[in-house]
Amino acid sequence: MAEPSGDTGSRAEQVRAILAGVARMDRARGGVLVAPDGFVIDAQLRPDIAVEPLAAVAAALGRELELGADRLSRGMAGTAFFSAQDGGLFLGGSPVGFLAVVAEPDADVQKMRNAVKQALDALQQIWRAGDHSGANL
Amino acid sequence: MAEAEALVTQALHIDPRNGVALLLSGYLHAAARRSDAARTAFRTVLAMDPDHPRAMLGLAKTDLEAGDVASSRELLERALRFYPDFPEARALLDVVRGLLTGRGEPAPRSLTALQFRQLAFPPGTRECMVVDHDGTVLFSHPVSRTRQALADHLVRVAGMASAALGRAGLGAVRRGAIRSNSGTTFLVSDSRVLLALTLPPDAAPAAALREAEALWTRCMDELGAARPARG
Question: What is the pTM of this model?
Fold first, then answer.
C-alpha cells in the first residue's frame, strides 16, 4: 500500500502511487480517483471498463453519500461498499475527491476496505501538505 | 487549487464575462463542494451561451445534488441533443432516468405497509427501514420525522450504486455497507425493495449483514414475495 513519501516526488506522483497501491491489489479490477466536479484525476482500470462514465457516476454517488450524511445528521460520510452478482465497488471521499475501487466477486472485502481507508488517509495527508487556502472566486 | 482559483479570479477581474473563466470557476466551486456557487457560475455561462454542453453538464450535476432530478434530466438530454458523443452526460442521464422511473411508475403490484410483528432487532439497532424503490416507506423503526428524507436518500444511493456497478459490468446492487461516524447502514436490495439496517459504527460487518439478510427474508415473507435477494 503506497503512502505519501514526504519530499520525494511531486504530489501528482504521490497521488498516482496511492491509487496504484489499491487499484492493483489482489482481486481488484482497478480504481479511479475523481474530483467532486467529475474531473478524472487518475484512473487505473482494466481496459474493458470505460473511465469517464464510471467516474461521473461514482462522483454523483459520492456526493449523494456526503450530502445525505449531512442532511440527515449522520456525521461525516466514511467508506461505502456495494456488491452485485459479479463483483463489488468500494467508494470513499477525501478532500481531493472520491476514490472508487472495483473488486472481483471473491475479493477479501475487509482487506480491501482497509486498503481503501488507508489510501483515503494518505490522500488527506497529501492534501493537507498543499496550500488550499482558496481564493475569493 | 488555491493557485487555480487565484488565476480564475484574476481572469474574471479583467473580463467578468469570459466564458472559459466562468466555466472554470464553476468547476472549481464544484470541486470545493460549493454547489450553490457552482450553480451560479454554470447558469451565468448558459445565459451567455445556452447550448454550452459542459455548462449544461455542470448544472445538471448540481441540480442532481440538490434533488432536482427532473431539471437534471432536461439539461442532460439537451446536452446530448447537441453533443451525442458525451459519455459523462450519457452515464448521468441513465442515472437520473432510473431515479425518475422509480419515482414515477407504480410498483407492478402495490405493496402494503409492513407490520413486522414481534420482530427482534439486533442489539444496538439505530434504525431499520424498508422502502419501495419509488420512495414509499413500507416500514420504519423508529418512526422518525426524517424517515421520508432518509427513504429518498436511500433510493438515490441504491440507484446510483446500481448505475456505478453497472458501468463496471457487475450488475445491479444487492448488498451494501455505508459507514459514517455515527453508524454503519447495511443494505439489502432487489429491483423493487430496499432494506436498510443501521447499527453502531463498530458493528461486525459479516454478522450485521447476516442480521440484515434475516430481516430481509422476513420482509419478503411478509410481502408474500418469498424470494431471496441474489448476489
Answer: 0.90
Cβ of A50 and B162 within 8 Å? no
Q: How far is CA A23 from CA A37, B109, B225, in A?
A: 22, 42, 39
pLDDT of residue A10: 85
pLDDT digits (tens, 9 = 90+) for B32-82: 999 999 999 999 999 999 999 999 999 999 999 999 999 999 999 999 999
Ranges A53-62, A64-73, B22-31, B50-59: which has the least confidence: A64-73
3-class DSSP assignment, residue B226: coil
Beta-strand pair A77-84/A87-93: antiparallel
- Mind telling me how many Å the CA of B184 is from chain A's nearest CA? 9
Residue in chain A closest to B230 (alpha carbons) equals: A85
Q: How close does chain A come to B221, measured CA to CA in Å?
A: 22
Closest partner residue to B88 (CB to CB) among A53, A68, A102 is A53
Q: Which residue of B has its CA nearest to A80?
A: B178
- Asked if residue A3 has pLDDT above 90, the reply is no
CB B177, CB A116: distance < 8 Å: no
φ/ψ of A62, rounded to 5, equals -60, -40
Nearest CA in chain B to A137: B9
Q: pLDDT: is B104 or A102 the higher one?
A: A102
